[in-house]
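Sanity check

After download, print the first record. It should look like this:
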Amino acid sequence: MLMDKPQRGFWCECWTQDVNDETGWPALRASFDAYSAPQADRWVAVALRTISPALDPDASDEAWEWLHDGRIDTRRALLRMEPCTVSLTHANTRITWTIRPVVFLPLAHRQGVDLPACAYDFNARAAD
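Expected structure tokens:
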């Protein structure tokens, strides 16, 4: 989305972690920039609906409980610009979606003659 001024929105992430690995760090699996509360909670809802058939019965129940009941509370919190977390455990994996209110800043364009000198110092690396 192109913007010319700061815009409120939500930064959404999906993390996984092995619940049996006490020293392991969570792994970021996906991220998404949402520009409204409905868009943010819809991102989690679509993910849960997509993976629910592959989840074990307990995790599937957790997913559908959030979809039917918890989603309302999440949406209300997001409308108040409060961060939210949705988590479930499937087998040995904890899956956590986080939604945080943020302010997206516009990026400077790279057209024009008034680029700073450092703009020309960047050289893209060749893919390995």
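If your output differs, re-run the checksum step. Summary of this record's structure: The two ends are 30 Å apart (CA to CA).
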